Amino acid sequence: VIIFLSLIVSRTVTVFSFPDPSVAAQEAWSWEQYLTEQKAIAAPVELFSKDQSFPEHENGFQVGMRLEGIDPRHPSVFCVLSVAEVCGYRLRLHFDGYLSCYDFWTNAGSPDIHPIGWCEKTKHELHIPKGYRKDKFVWMDYLKACKLQNAPKKLFRNRSSNGPMPKEFQVGMKLEAIDRKNPSLVCVATIADIVEDRLLVHFDNWDDSYDYWCDVNSPYVQPVGWCQENGRTLIAPQGYPDPENFSWTEYLEATQTNAVPAKVFKMRPPHGFLPSMRLEAVDRRNPRLIRVATVIDVDDQRVKVHFDGWDHKYDYWMDADSPDIHPIGWCDVTGHPLEVPYRANDVKILPGQAVCPTPGCRGIGHIRGPRYSGHHSAFGCPYSDMNLKKEATLHDRLREQTQAHLESDSSHSKSKNLCSLSFNGKHEKVNSQPR
Length: 435
Ligand SMILES: [Zn+2]
Description:
The chain has eight helices and 21 strands. With 435 residues, the chain is an alpha+beta fold.
């Protein structure tokens, strides 16, 4: 590992030059030199999970390929997706029939994506492209009629090596789970689905936007009775008649359900990230970008990342097992541009050139999503104060079914529909059902 790391840190990273190659000079930047300069250390590669670490396979996906996958905003929903962009080991995925403001980035080895036909095979409901009839949608006809290509099976990562789900975990069983959007809350939850080595956690009587997938060793899931044993408050299901006096015994009986047996929970050891460690992290305000970042704080399940050279107002917490953090050298190895630390004197502005006024921002990306590749003003900037303060929540894709007139890409610029970047920070306000 040490040899491998020293190999990759000694290679240089070319500064991604966009939108104007003359602005960002093709300067060489290297992790090795940077760490020495900063007297900093890299987060050891052993701290990263398989989904975060260096991939074992190339990214073979191509733009236009069709696949099935989870909607990150509705984790219980499987959709028809297409590859809109390929960058290094990452993909921008598009929901067929929807605006590109709902597109999202994922890793090519993500467990959230599957080849076409997977839903049918595994008896999951497939949410078909808008405009098609549920009973009339046939993948092969769709591909043929639209002259589309499916993503071949061999491009998807085989996860069987992680071993199957222990048979004690079954759909419908109850457990106690941490609400990842509000990590101080432990709530009554149900296993809503099981796929390969992961389970879908659903909070009883809450909408599915709180759902999440995790593996059985995740510190987010605990057996029934865990709160009582550990002196924590268990949040009863929404609408429970006497939430202060929630009783598992009564609830299991009333719902005719079983608890996952406590003995099958094996919590993984704590993550080993420590403050001041350097890594590469996806910038979720502008998710096409991966930046040089520092861990500046940690708690049991999370790390707080700071983007080197940027103001601390852009720091935020991420799950320690998030697939969006990577060991140093990951971008170089996978062929993804790395956004290197911003230094004021690096910026060379040509006379008359329109540039974004936000310090550090090179005008890449747009608050309204990938339809606009860049911006020249605070209005479009994902980092400007006006956009940080704004409740930058995306309209719900699944609640816009009736707004067919927004479908056409060409009409978008005239539409008043704000499709802004979704940023769920630590102090987010949940618009549908505040907890
Ligand atoms: Zn900007």
